[in-house]
Amino acid sequence: MISVALATYNGEKYIKEQLESILYQTCPADEVIITDDCSKDGTVACIQAFIAQHDLTEKWLVYSNKTNLGFAENFRKAINLTKGDIIFFSDQDDIWVQDRIEKMSEVMQGCKDMGLLCTKEQLFTDAEKPEIKNGANSIPSKITLNPHTRFLRTLGCAMCVRRSFYDTIAKDWYDDWAHDEFFWSMAVLLGKAYQWDYTSIYHRVHSMQYSGHLGHTKEKRIQYLESVIKSSEYLLAYAKSNQLPQSTVDLFTKNVKAHQYRLELVKDRNLACLFKLVPYIKYYYAPKSYLAEIKIALRR
Q1: What are residue 122's DSSP bridge partners?
Q2: How many CA atoms lie less than 13 Å away from 80 in the CB half-sphere?
């Protein structure tokens, strides 16, 4: 059974294109679960009209939240309402490649060790939608844990996850941990994450979409660093309690320390951390963040 978890919020402008691309898959989904987070536009009405028009009331279900849950918890709700053996994540403003479900499901079914499958995406704007040309001979590769892959390296909308894998980690999903970061972190940690050089979606870029980018303000950087410390401390505790390899424990120990120094630099303007961080450069998502945070720390 194939499920789609779709979280919406004020997505009236683009939602129909996304719904159409899900509906007209070469291998249809068995269920589509949509959770709307108190949209102030006509998103829900548009979805309901689409479901009625295509006679999808038994397989496509839309839930309207009574209160705004926020991006992370709204997606979590959608995922928890699904029943499928394989769960696809969907944003509200992308367009799926027509054989996305078919191709990714075949790959998942062919490798029982695979808990999470990530694909590539083709960025586009309203002005241009480039043609996708996929290679036929590529095969998925397993993602190994290192300081680079510790961080989310792909988009959640380009992922699918196996239900049985989710069941083993669901209790470890703490509140407001974004779904893509949670699944990526746990799958890479446990050796269940795979990357496939196949482009499965057109990912729309526009001014109104939710973005997890850091930004360059002190406040946003502090918020980001605090969230990374929280997840890293959790993963470190998980690694210790589940007796994972010492190399894994060491990696997250250093990851926590690096981000504590980064937070001290940005939040408290402790310039001594500039020197303390030199041995930890590889524990950044990108080395250029080191320079960006120096600039933030030096601002008056």
Answers
A1: 202
A2: 12
**Helix/strand/coil (H/E/C) assignment for every residue in 77-94:** HHHHHCCCCEEEEECCCC
Single out the residue of 279, 285, 292, 287 nearest to residue 147, CA to CA: 285
- Which SS3 state, helix, strand or coil, does residue 107 take? helix
Global pTM value: 0.92
% helix, strand, coil for the chain, step of 5: 45, 20, 35
Tens-digit pLDDT profile for residues 33-81? 999 999 999 999 999 999 999 999 999 999 999 999 999 999 999 999 9
With contact defined as beta carbons under 8 Å apart, do 32 and 60 qualify? yes
Whole-number Å distance between alpha carbons of 65 and 63: 6
Residue 235: its H or E element: helix 218-241
